[in-house]
């Protein structure tokens, strides 16, 4: 059985593209299972009576052959000198060791190898001394740690820039501009803007962490998206006027009841419509459409799309837009009062609501941000009654 398993795993490497590390782990798992079974039920119960005497000897030789060959496939698959060295050390000292290592090929991965001595009682014969190698993939854990570190570095950097500007102006006002009323007014205006930017950043950071904390708690209040979208659009009409943009809402649904946190959903549409007004202002128009899907029969989802006719977004940026602090053009985002956290907030809020954000864009003709949220049970039924 062990020989067949070894052949199968060896064949799977070129045929099925199985990585050498999983192949060795798979083989080792079967090998340990077989050895333990052999130790507990020597001579295998299914074997015919006359085979009873032959089997243990054959199995013994096969096990010895495979186990003695194990270090070779391991050194072939795991070209990590530390691990091979540790296997030798554990075989000699019979003391457990734990090692972390990193592999670049085929993709960046971190592993933890636990190498432990294992004794299989030999029954009538001598005990078998083996070494158990267990590999644990630490990559997801490491990725989270890296993301946290990046996040803190980005957040500090974002706060440091307006802070440096504030300190600079304070020094100027205390020194050279002390008796210059016109410069003082100008500087104070800039300082106010920087302070507002810091406040907005802290506000967004806090919202993000609050939403992250309750990501697994699904909201349970019925909320109508049609009302929310109209309310948000009304609230943003001064900005639309200032940017000379017309907002047009097309209602294909009278009500879109979802289970949602009202304030968070307001935040979603505020961010999307504000972005369309800020980054897509040159298109002069923002179209918002509210619909059920599928349009005929019983609808399952509410779809709200916010479309602008501005410069659009190049395709390479689309998958990264919802990352924290990711911006296509940092200068423009700052000039527009952006924090780079808006779409990250949108994504987190939608995740908590079991919703999705889809972004489509043709550079030169604008961008379309669509939100899909599951309708509440009452929301689906309302449609059937109409
Ligand atoms: P910000 O605070 O910078 O607006 P967001 O997370 O809301 O942060 O958006 C991230 C980036 O996505 C923006 O900086 C901008 O480059 C781009 N973006 C978002 N919406 C649009 C849009 N409607 N048209 C063009 N670019 C957009």
Compact description:
By secondary structure, the chain is of the alpha+beta class. The chain has 13 helices and ten strands. Bound molecules: adenosine-5'-diphosphate.
SSE class: alpha+beta
Oligomer class: single chain
Structural shape: elongated
Distance between the termini: 67 Å
Task: Give the strand line-up of the largest sheet.
Answer: 5-7-8-10-9
Largest sheet: 5 strands, mixed
Radius of gyration over C-alpha positions, nearest whole angstrom: 32 Å
Distinct small-molecule ligands in the complex? adenosine-5'-diphosphate
Unreliable spans: 43-55
Number of strands: 10
**Residues in helices, as a percent range:** 40-55%
Average pLDDT works out at 86
Strand content: 15-25%
Give the count of helical stretches. 13
Order of helices and strands: HHHHHEEEHHEHHEEHEEHHEEH
Keywords:
binds adenosine-5'-diphosphate, 3-stranded antiparallel β-sheet, alpha+beta, 386 residues, 13 helices, 5-stranded mixed β-sheet
Written account of the structure:
The structure is a single chain. This protein has helices spanning 2-16, 20-40, 54-69, 71-77, 81-93, 139-174, 181-213, 225-235, 237-242, 262-279, 330-335, 342-352, 377-385, and strands at 97-103, 109-120, 128-137, 222-224, 246-251, 257-259, 285-293, 301-308, 356-362, 366-374. The protein has 386 residues and is α+β, with helices and mostly antiparallel strands. A hairpin with a 7-residue loop joins strand 2 (109-120) and strand 3. The longest helix is centred in the middle third of the chain and has 36 residues, at 139-174. The protein starts with a helix and ends with a helix. Bound molecules: adenosine-5'-diphosphate. Adenosine-5'-diphosphate is lined by residues 271, 275-276, 279-280, 308, 310, 313, 321, 327-329, 333, 338-344, 367.
């Amino acid at each position: 059985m062990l020989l067949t398993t070894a052949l199968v795993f060896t064949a799977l490497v070129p045929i099925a593209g199985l990585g050498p590390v999983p192949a060795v782990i798979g083989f080792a798992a079967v090998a340990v299972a077989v050895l333990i079974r052999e130790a507990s039920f020597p001579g295998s119960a299914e074997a015919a009576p006359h085979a009873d005497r032959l089997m243990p000897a054959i199995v013994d030789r096969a096990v010895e052959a495979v186990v003695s060959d194990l270090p070779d496939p391991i050194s072939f698959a795991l070209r990590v000198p530390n691990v091979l060295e540790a296997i030798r050390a554990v075989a000699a000292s019979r003391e457990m060791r734990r090692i972390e290592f990193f592999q670049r090929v085929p993709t960046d991965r971190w592993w933890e190898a636990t190498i432990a001595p294992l004794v299989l009682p030999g029954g009538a014969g001598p005990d078998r001394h083996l070494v158990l190698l267990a590999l644990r993939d630490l990559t997801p854990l490491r990725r989270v740690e890296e993301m946290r570190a990046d996040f803190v570095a980005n957040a500090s950097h974002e706060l440091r820039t307006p802070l440096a500007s504030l300190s600079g102006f304070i020094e100027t006002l205390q020194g050279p501009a002390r008796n210059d009323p016109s410069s003082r007014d100008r500087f104070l205006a800039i300082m106010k803007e920087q302070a507002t930017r810091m406040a907005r950043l802290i506000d967004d950071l806090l919202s993000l962490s609050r939403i992250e904390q309750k990501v697994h708690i699904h909201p349970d209040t019925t909320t109508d998206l049609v009302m929310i979208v109209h309310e948000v659009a009304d609230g943003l009409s001064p900005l639309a006027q200032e940017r000379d943009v017309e907002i047009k809402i097309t209602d294909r649904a009278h009500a879109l009841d979802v289970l949602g946190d009202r304030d968070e959903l307001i935040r979603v549409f505020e961010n999307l419509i504000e972005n369309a007004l800020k980054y897509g202002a040159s298109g002069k128009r923002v179209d918002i459409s509210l619909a059920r899907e599928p349009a005929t029969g019983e609808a399952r989802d509410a779809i709200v799309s916010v479309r602008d006719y501005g410069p659009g977004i190049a395709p390479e940026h689309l998958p990264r837009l919802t990352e924290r602090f990711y911006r296509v053009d940092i200068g423009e985002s700052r000039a527009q009062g952006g924090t780079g956290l808006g779409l990250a907030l949108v994504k987190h809020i939608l995740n908590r609501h079991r919703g999705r954000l889809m972004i489509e864009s043709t550079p030169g003709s604008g961008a379309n941000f669509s939100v899909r949220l599951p309708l509440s049970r009452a929301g689906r039924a309302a449609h059937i009654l109409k």
